[in-house]
Q: What sequence folds into this?
């Protein structure tokens, strides 16, 4: 389990058009939003990433960069980027499932073709949304066992405004006895 205010696992992956993404080398003022998505086969992911694409500039105004990550290869990732008409959102690909597990993501097995007629990979990770500080510590995290009912990016932007205005710390950091 990832713990707020503690260092996250590393994340170094190829991107479609931006060289190599290395979380440890991100130079944003306030951090990075990492949106792990299931892959091209998921129509809910496509809609979710469209929403993130609309909010990339909002995050950037607050000093936060964004990236979408999946275990899909380059070709399927490019298809997803084209499908959502991505202009601002960076896409990373070839996420090793061992790294997905390090991030606390759930792993699913293929059920064949999805409702949009695209074959699921044999194994893939379920969604996760994280905000990581420039020091590579966890600020916010949400993981899911299914593709449904994800955090809203507009709410995350609003929460970020509150956190900035009030110097609000990451919560959930306590690891002692209960």
A:
């Amino acid at each position: 389990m990832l713990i707020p205010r503690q260092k996250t696992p590393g994340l170094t992956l190829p991107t479609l058009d931006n060289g190599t993404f290395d979380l440890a080398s991100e130079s944003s003022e306030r951090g990075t939003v990492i949106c792990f998505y299931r892959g091209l086969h998921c129509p809910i992911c496509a809609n979710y990433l469209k929403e993130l694409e609309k909010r990339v500039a909002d995050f950037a105004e607050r000093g936060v960069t964004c990236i979408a990550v999946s275990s899909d290869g380059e070709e399927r990732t490019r298809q997803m980027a084209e499908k959502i008409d991505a202009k601002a959102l960076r896409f990373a690909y070839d996420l090793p499932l061992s790294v997905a597990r390090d991030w606390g993501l759930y792993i699913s097995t293929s059920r064949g073709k999805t409702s949009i007629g695209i074959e699921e990979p044999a194994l893939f990770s379920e969604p996760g949304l994280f905000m990581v500080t420039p020091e590579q510590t966890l600020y916010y995290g949400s993981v899911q066992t299914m593709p449904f009912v994800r955090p809203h990016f507009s709410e995350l932007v609003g929460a970020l405004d509150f956190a900035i205005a009030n110097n609000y710390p990451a919560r959930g950091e306590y690891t002692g006895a209960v």
Remarks:
- The two ends are 17 Å apart (CA to CA).
- The mean pLDDT is 97.
- Helices lie at 43-61, 74-83, 97-102, 153-166.
- The first strand starts at residue 12 and ends at 14.
